[in-house]
Design goal:
Shape: globular
CATH architecture: Sandwich
Strand content: 35-45%
CATH class: Mainly Beta
Order of helices and strands: EEEEEEEEEHEEEEHEEEE
Helix content: under 10%
Radius of gyration: 21 Å
Number of helices: 2
CATH topology: Jelly Rolls
Distance between the termini: 27 Å
Structural class: mainly beta
């Protein structure tokens, strides 16, 4: 079998810039989101008109105890993208600013995606992730993302969904009041060097438990088979992978470097998900110890870089292609069931307690999402 190294990892998310607030116009009213996660009509090679699309404008995201005002950790917004035309560049400008009372003082997982199916009866929606970030400690920040290859997904009237995993209750002083989110898409008309014709979800965001034999990787993120779109001559996978959880053996999954493997057909493609540049790429002047530790694919106050790999030779002749995901073998012996009868755990990095406490000792896992991009 042929394996390729992480040299194919394309880091096309631009680095963080100074915190700021975007001035932008409101988006048009929403229309029902399509179940199709991104396909275009017959290609025209006609450049579209330059456009600016704003989905969120200083939109509050926060957590609130009780039910008086409800929680806004997840917020939807309508967005209307050009229905036709090619775009040489699509850049998402994403900004977090602080509400009155200050930003959340902790670093939080955040994501932005396109809703392809609204959740029923208050349940979760199906969302195709387009951008991921981790908030700074207590200050704002801004990042730019190159989304040019996602043009087939960013077409027509859509619903976008933003999520920040904040647990700071509003109304308590000294810990911040959540975040204000602005998301603006700058679209420059023109024909890109590689014209994308479809964006096909492989896995919407999965929480992949790590290091517990009772929770195998394939149980969290099963192998997937997707239908290859017509009219394509090349393909790439675009994936986000970040590790979370600490106090475990090797301080996984946040503070341990591990090899991740995507198998396309019968071909494994591997990379090490690891960031060593937090001191230079993260928002400056934030709190916490952000400059002093490397992490599994992310930094506090930085955009998350997608893992992008050309899989043209691996998808086969169609009409479908298969995908599987795995992580380097690991046994977390610092877990509640690792030692019977309340014994002492082995390998805990922050003490001897087996119990997960939601703070210094949290169960290791990865957040994984991916799409297949087809090009003409």
């Amino acid at each position: 079998m042929r394996a390729r190294s992480s040299a194919l990892l394309a880091l096309f998310v631009l680095g963080p810039i100074a915190a700021s607030c975007s001035s932008s116009s409101a988006a048009p009213p929403d229309a029902a989101a399509s179940d199709d996660a991104g396909g275009s009509d017959a290609p025209t090679d006609t450049p579209g008109a330059d456009a600016t699309v704003t989905a969120f404008s200083k939109t509050p995201l926060f957590f609130k105890d009780g039910s008086a005002a409800g929680n806004r950790r997840t917020v939807d917004a309508p967005a209307s993208f050009p229905a036709s035309g090619e775009y040489a560049k699509i850049v998402l400008h994403l900004t977090l600013s602080c509400p009155q009372g200050g930003c959340d003082v902790y670093d939080r997982f955040g994501t932005l995606g396109v809703v392809t199916q609204k959740g029923a009866d208050g349940g979760p929606s199906t969302v195709v992730e387009i951008a991921r970030f981790v908030t700074p400690y207590g200050v704002g920040g801004s990042w730019d993302y190159d989304l040019t290859d996602l043009r087939p997904l960013l077409t027509g009237d859509l619903t976008l969904e933003a999520f920040i995993d904040t647990w700071v209750p509003q109304g308590q002083s000294g810990i911040g009041q959540g975040w204000l989110l602005t998301a603006t898409f700058q679209m420059t008309g023109g024909v890109p060097a590689k014209v994308p014709v479809a964006v096909v979800p492989i896995w919407t965001t999965k929480q992949v438990w790590y290091g517990d034999p009772a929770k195998p990787i394939a149980g969290s993120i099963p192998p997937a088979t997707v239908t290859l779109p017509a009219g394509a001559s090349s393909y790439a996978v675009r994936a986000f992978v970040t590790g979370h959880g600490q106090g475990n053996v090797d301080d996984c999954a946040e503070f341990c470097s591990r090899q991740h493997t995507l198998t396309v057909g019968s071909t494994p493609v591997s990379t090490t998900v690891w960031r060593t540049d937090c001191a230079t790429t993260a928002v400056k002047n934030q709190g916490g110890a952000y400059p002093f530790a490397s992490r599994a694919g992310w930094c506090p106050g930085a955009s998350v870089r997608p893992w992008i790999v050309d899989v043209t030779q691996d998808v086969g002749a169609g009409p479908t292609a298969s995908f599987a995901y795995d992580v380097q073998a690991y046994d977390n012996t610092c877990r509640p069931d690792a030692v019977p009868d309340g014994g002492t755990c082995v390998g805990c990095t922050l003490g001897a307690s087996c119990a997960y406490d939601g703070g210094l000792h949290t169960e290791p896992f990865f957040y994984v999402s991916s799409v297949l991009i087809a090009y003409r």
